[in-house]
Amino acid sequence: MIATGEFSIDLSPAEDDAVEAGRMSFTKLFSGDIAGTSEGQMLSKRTATVGSAAYVAIETFVGAIDGRQGEVSFHHTGVMDKGADSLSVLVVPDSGTGELVGITGSMMIKIESGVHRYHFEYQINPQK
């Protein structure tokens, strides 16, 4: 199954970032086939080389995916190597609750003209 839409994000820097890892808290508001909110934490690191950086994040979503209510968590890994980027956003195994029990999948995120868009390919196997 595929869910698409947009989300907005609000980032807040952590005040106790002792390792200068760019630790941020964030909230997202999803619209489209995914409707609800998520909260998460992100660590990022930029280098002295322009276009090179990395980030990891964990977020927990509460709401509905294609009308199915529940909660699910995602883990992010993003790397930029001199401008060439790769991003992985995957469902945390066995994190689905309610009607999202057994959910697996991956999400692509594109930012175009300042708008965050998602494309989430997923399956729900409640027998899992």
Written description of the protein model:
The protein has 128 residues and is mainly β. It has a single domain (2-124), classed as AOC barrel-like. Helix content is 0%, strand content 70%. It is built from no helices and eight strands. The protein has an eight-stranded antiparallel beta barrel.
Task: Provide a compact summary of the structure.
The chain is mainly β. The protein has no helices and eight strands.
Give the helix tally. 0
Evaluate the radius of gyration. 15 Å
Largest sheet: 8 strands, antiparallel, barrel
Tally of individual domains: 1
Kindly name the structural category: mainly beta
**Average pLDDT, all residues:** 91
The share of residues in extended strands comes to: over 45%
Q: Strand order of the main beta sheet, please?
A: 1-2-3-4-5-6-7-8
Share in helix: under 10%
The CATH class: Mainly Beta
Could you spell the SSE succession in H and E letters? EEEEEEEE
**CATH H level: which superfamily?**
SO1590-like
Shape: globular
Which architecture per CATH?
Answer: Beta Barrel
Give the CATH topology: AOC barrel-like
Point out poorly predicted stretches: none
Query: In total, how many beta strands?
Result: 8
Between the first and last Cα atoms, what is the distance in angstroms? 17 Å
